[in-house]
Structures are given as structure tokens and as C-alpha cells.
Design brief:
By secondary structure, the protein is α/β, with parallel strands linked by helices. The protein has helices at about 15-20, 30-40, 60-65, 70-95, 115-125, 140-150, 185-190, 200-205, 220-225; strands at about 10-15, 45-50, 100-105, 110-115, 130, 155-160, 165-170, 180, 185, 210-215, 235.
Length: about 240
């Protein structure tokens, strides 16, 4: 059996990853597929944590632009991430994958509060840990939450699952001549304003030498390929 490239990882899933083709809410077929792929990692000696977004249900920034008070809008968005986390937990546990949802917002009837040492202990017992509720603070995205949690638990990498096969210099859906990057430095991402993760998340990764792999999570088997170190997507790190 091939050895994984990472021993502990954080997989970042946007809210859009949960909606599939339904346009809004949760596509249960998509969640099942994601759960299948994550469950498939059990055969490798790898510890898996996830950070989920909530944009398929509610976008705080958009609601704020529409007139809702920004802090309130962001908290509603955090609640949406908990809905997605619970849906994914349910799908994983039906596949006999031990899973814990840990949230930055106390909600003891539904999930455990985020405690760093407890999260690491769950991972050491090879439970999948889903981090929900963002950072628990408004004005911070779930990208920043992924960078923060990955740094706190000392993950080896952040795997950023998207709908495209890497990072391009411009939108490949609009520009056929868009150039895909195989590798980038953190400062390239910031200076070129590439849509990898928000600036706070990229800077946090840079400060802690935490690599980011951006890949297409909608392609079956890609999660396993990235975990095994196959060169798909775009790798962001220093020393390129």
C-alpha cells in the first residue's frame, strides 16, 4: 500500500461543495460522495480534520451588503457551517467513520466546544474532526478558520477543495487562455491577488510555513490522490 504524503491534514470544504447542482442548500448525493472519499482514507495512517463553510445556506458578507448588520450576518453564517458539519457527520457515521463536530460557538446539545487538546486527542484516536462555526468571531472567513485550526493542531497541510483544478491567473471559465500555476509562493498569491484563500489566511500559512494545495474536490478520487502526494492542483508554499 502506498504511503500518504501527510500524517495530519486539514481539508477545507466551501459551502458550495455541499450544494452540488441544486443551487442552494445541501445536495445529499454530493455529501454522500464526499463521505465516501473521506471514509476511504481510513486505510491509510493519516489523521483527518475538516473545516466547512456555509455559503450554500447563508453568506454573511452578502447579507451585510444587503443591509443586515455585519456582525449579525457573520454569526448567521457561522450557524450555517454547523448545519453542513452535522450533515457531513451523519453521512460519515453511516459509513462507520468515528466523527466529532467541534464548534467555536458553544452548542453543547449538538457539538463539542472547540478545545485544541481535545481535538488533537480525537485525531490521535483516528476520529475525523469537523471544525465548524468558523473562528467564532465576525469579520473572519472560514478560510482563516482553516488556517488557524491547521496551525493550532500542527497539521502538515491544508487541502483546499474547489470546483477548479488549481489556481489560475484569471478565471478559466471566462478566459480560455487562462494560465494554471503548478506551484506558487505565498507572496505571489498576495501580490497577484489570486483567489486561493483570503489574505489573512495566506499570511497565517506563510508565517507558519504551512503549505496549501488547491485542487478540484468534485472529481472522484482526487482527495485520495492529493493525500498520496500526487501532483494535482496547485501547491502554495515558500521555496518554490
Amino acid at each position: 500500500m502506498r504511503e500518504p504524503a501527510y500524517s495530519r491534514l486539514v481539508l477545507k470544504l466551501s459551502g458550495e461543495a455541499f450544494q452540488g447542482e441544486v443551487g442552494y442548500g445541501i445536495d445529499h448525493g454530493v455529501v454522500e460522495s464526499l463521505a465516501d472519499e473521506i471514509a476511504g482514507l481510513a486505510k491509510y495512517d493519516v489523521q483527518v480534520a475538516l473545516v466547512v463553510g456555509g455559503g450554500n445556506i447563508f453568506r454573511g458578507a452578502a447579507a451585510s451588503a444587503g443591509g443586515m448588520e455585519r456582525t449579525t450576518a457573520d454569526y448567521v453564517g457561522m450557524l450555517a457551517t454547523i448545519i453542513n458539519a452535522m450533515a457531513l457527520q451523519d453521512a460519515l457515521e453511516k459509513k462507520d467513520v468515528m466523527t466529532r463536530v467541534m464548534t467555536a460557538i458553544e452548542m453543547k446539545e449538538l457539538a463539542e466546544p472547540y478545545i485544541r487538546r481535545r481535538a488533537i486527542r480525537h485525531l490521535e484516536k483516528h476520529r475525523v474532526v469537523i471544525f465548524a462555526g468558523g473562528t467564532g468571531n465576525p469579520y473572519f472567513t472560514t478560510d482563516t478558520a482553516a488556517a488557524l485550526r491547521a496551525t493550532e493542531i500542527r497539521a502538515d497541510v491544508i487541502l483546499k477543495g474547489t470546483k477548479v483544478d488549481g489556481v489560475y491567473d484569471k478565471d478559466p471559465a471566462e478566459f480560455p487562455d487562462a494560465k494554471k500555476f503548478d506551484e506558487l509562493k505565498y507572496m505571489d498569491v498576495l501580490n497577484l491577488e489570486l483567489k486561493v484563500m483570503d489574505a489573512a489566511a495566506v499570511l497565517l500559512c506563510k508565517e507558519n510555513s504551512l503549505p496549501i494545495v488547491v485542487f478540484n474536490v468534485t472529481v472522484g478520487g482526487n482527495i485520495e490522490r492529493v493525500v498520496l502526494g500526487e501532483k494535482i492542483g496547485t501547491l502554495v508554499r515558500d521555496g518554490v
